[in-house]
Structures are given as C-alpha cells and as structure tokens.
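# nightly structure sweep
# worker-07 picked up a monomer target from the shared queue
# config: single-sequence mode, recycle default, output format = structure tokens
# input follows
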Amino acid sequence: AVVDLADPAFSKQGGVEVLTGFAGTHSLIRELKGFKGRMPDGFLPFGHGGTGNHVCLDTNTKRGAVYYWDHELEHLGPWGCVAKAASSFDSFLRLLTPLEWPPESK
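# output follows
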C-alpha cells in the first residue's frame, strides 16, 4: 500500500511535523535505539508526526524507499505496521508541502 501524504487522513494522523536531528529529544541515535527491533532492520526513522507514528528511510533499498510506520499496528510485527509512502527519498521530498504558520482559523 502507498500512503498518500496529501490525503487528509494522513494529515489527521499527524503528517510529518518533526524531522529527526543529531541532538536533542528527537536525535537520530535516540530514535534508532528506541525503535530497535520494533521497525524492520535497516529502517532509519527520520521524521514523525508527534502522534507516535514515524516516517522512515529504508536503507536496504538502492533508491532509499520511504515508509510510514504506524505505532498502532505494531502488534502485527515490524513489517505489518509499515506502508510505502514513496519509492525513493527524492520522490518523498516532492510529496511534501509546507504548512502555513500560524494555521488559518476557520
């Protein structure tokens, strides 16, 4: 399955709010340690939506496929809770759209 990042359902699940850095609360090292054995081997969690779900780079693929990892499906095993978001990191970047800040009130 491919996750449509422009789909409102993905936005309701949090979208991508935070990109993982090298220090602080969401550091790459901390994320890798925290998700070891919970995500498929070779997955690099580089972003999350603040709801416990993550966007991961599959380092096992030549083009760096990007997957969406849903923590609520974790009971299905490492591959049961992921859906392909993009076939490459480049195509993933093209799917992203900036959010307006502050959000418009309706």
